[in-house]
Design brief:
Length: 293
């Protein structure tokens, strides 16, 4: 069994971005600028946004965070997005999810200028992805593609089984890996809560991607000998025996599944570190596309 080292691969990706940003800045022009909107003070969202800010800083990318209280109206939030949409000095914009219940996430996403939509959540960008046109690929699926590619794991002609059909992971990764392209060309089965014979389908997977949101859902008897296993889950499980009072688990029962897998991504240290690297890449892409205007 070999570990898919997300930490190391993310480091490489971030280094590549940092070099490119440094070249831009050395030429004497303004570099890329990412804006994040944070509504309320959900602790997980605060942590994500702080990590994004830190990663931007390390890569030489300018970052701004616009904070609003959780009682901001939908109209006011849309106006804040308008303001950033029309600011030529900001290249990328993300609105941290989840949003308070009285605000429509769909409306917010559709309000973001698609050219600044570095999350790749806007319907126009998702449509382009489906049609295999250049666009922003959402961070987690892009991270998975990079993990496979940079670990030199062949996807062409392979049977990929994806567990979970979320808008931000399961659905886009199933589309990406089935597209006609060098690092894809897989035969993909997308499984979900209504799938019958789930175990039998998982056992056919050359590459199994678990994004189901249930701790240690994938057990050893669901995995073919020699399969590649990508674990997208991240769960904090209370544990009296751990000094922190909790342990981090993925969607895969790592100890048992790792005995059968040829490659496996750990949690933490697998898919997680890749997402921010993907966001930086999208921000750089947005910047470069906007220089051509
Ligand atoms: N909340 C959890 N993941 C994400 C993400 O990738 N982007 C945004 N905007 N919010 C999130």
């Amino acid at each position: 069994m070999k570990l898919i080292d997300g930490k190391e691969i993310a480091k490489q990706l971030k280094e590549e971005i940092k070099i490119e940003v440094a070249e831009i800045l050395d030429s004497g022009v303004d570099g890329p600028h990412l804006a994040a909107i944070l509504v309320g003070n959900d602790p997980a969202s605060e942590t994500y946004v702080a990590s994004k800010e830190k990663a931007c800083k390390n890569a030489g990318i300018l970052s701004s965070v616009y904070r609003y209280p959780s009682n901001i109206s939908e109209k006011e939030l849309l106006e804040a997005i308008d303001f950033i949409n029309s600011d030529p000095e900001i290249n990328g914009l993300l609105v941290q999810m989840p949003l308070p219940k009285h605000i429509s996430e769909d409306k917010v996403i559709e309000h973001i200028n698609p050219e600044k939509d570095v999350d790749g959540f806007h319907p126009l960008n998702l449509g382009k992805m489906v049609m295999n046109k250049a666009t922003f690929i959402p961070a987690t699926p892009y991270g998975i593609v990079q993990l496979l590619e940079r670990s030199k794991i062949e996807t062409q002609g392979k049977h990929v089984v994806v567990l979970g059909r979320s808008n931000i992971v399961g659905t886009p990764i199933s589309i990406l890996l089935s597209r006609k392209s060098k690092n894809a060309n897989a035969t993909v089965t997308l499984c979900h809560s209504r799938t019958q014979n789930l175990k039998e389908i998982c056992l056919q997977a050359d590459i199994l991607i678990a994004a189901i949101g249930q701790p240690e859902f994938v057990k050893e008897d669901m995995v073919k000998e020699g399969a590649v296993v990508i674990d997208v889950g991240i769960h904090r499980i209370e544990s009296a025996s751990s000094p922190k009072g909790y342990v981090i688990k993925g969607d895969v029962a790592f100890d048992e599944v790792s005995k059968k897998a040829s490659w496996i991504s750990p949690v933490p240290g697998g898919v997680g570190p890749m997402t921010i690297a993907s966001l930086l890449r999208n921000t750089l892409m947005a910047y470069k596309a906007q220089q051509k205007h």
